[in-house]
User: What shape does this take?
Amino acid sequence: MDAAELLLITGLTLRVSLTAVAFSSALGIPLGILIATRQRYRRVLALVVNTAMGTPPVLLGLLLYLLLSRQGPLGSLGLLFTPEGMVLSQFLLTLPITAGLTASAVESLPRETRELIESLATRPAFKALLLANEAKPQLLAASLTALARAVSEVGSVIIVGGNIRYHTRVLTTAIVYYTNAGEFEAALWLGAVLALVYLSLNAAALAVRAAVRE
Amino acid sequence: MIEARGLVKHYGGLPVLRGVDLRAERGEVVCVVGPNGAGKSTLLRILALVEWPDQGAVLYDGVQAEQRSAASLRARIAYVPQRSHVLSLSVRNNVLFALLARGVPLGEAAARADEALKAVGLYDLRGRRASALSGGQKQLLALARALALQPEYLLLDEPTASLDPENARRVRELLREYVEAKRAAAVVVSHSMAEVRELADKTVVLVNGRVAATYTGTPEEAVLARLFA
Assistant: This one.
């Protein structure tokens, strides 16, 4: 593995994870606000989301493999062993995280704030917007948690992506590959890069959070 | 007209309201007074439709409020809670977004926001973050936001508690003018006799979750009326 390949792997890891989390945040944050503000079925929805948060990635990977394989119901989409398929798997894996953490963030806002917004906003979209604005730091943390899960996840991307060199190999699947091949030095370098990526994401999130609070 | 009929509310099994009746006609300010823990703020939250009673009903102009259709009624109400809460926005956007959230077009919302901020003396601070304001300024902002909404029903929980005497007087004048000009109905929870004296057309004394007394006019007039009854 040379530097060019390392860059390719790191770039794909970021592209897949960031795209998946962008989609899961775009859908999960409104979904979480809806769960937190619903009168009916709130507990059932929260139970479903919290259970989904603990879905084992390998199980999700297996289900997606069966759905996306050529004989599967979604086989015609041609997503198996592609970066797009990996985005789909990470999107599904991180959606319950963004939705669940958003719901608890909104529920933990001070009662006065929620009541004020409830009394002010008669339009549901504005209500969601004002609640999201009040919970900005927590929502950022929710997306960051989802991103951390996506970057460090291996179980589903290895099944859905196939760990194909120069095509669907990401940092975690590459570590698995080089460890199995006995190339521990390469695996350790990849691990260091993964840690550095995670550190950079955390630093960026901290900077954004500080800017949001100011 | 705002009307509460037989409101009962429990928290954790403990009764907070035990059958409260209240009525505020259009153009009338009803002050609710009473000791701490009497249920005044709970009563106001139920009237504001952000909390629901265990028993009893809230009616606006004779129409009973129901949880499913509360949004359309809320659009006619402005509620200022006890701790004047501000949104994590600029001073101006606190008022502007409240108006936009009620469906007021942007141009009109901007004009109304500026007018309301001028009325309470916060216009020069319009660009500042609302969270950086003092307690009194936050209370003024909450009132500006409430008045900018041009509600038919005003529900205010100790609206001048954090204000200096000069600002408190100005706010009471603004409220009085607003209620008379718009023929709005207002319910004001208060601990201040000065406030009750200047604002109240009718006063409801709440003790231990029950209406202990209701009188019209100022506290002095009520005492005199009792003396000569």
Notes: Chain A touches chain B through 19 residues (CB under 8 Å). Chain A has a mean pLDDT of 91. Chain A has ten helices and no strands.
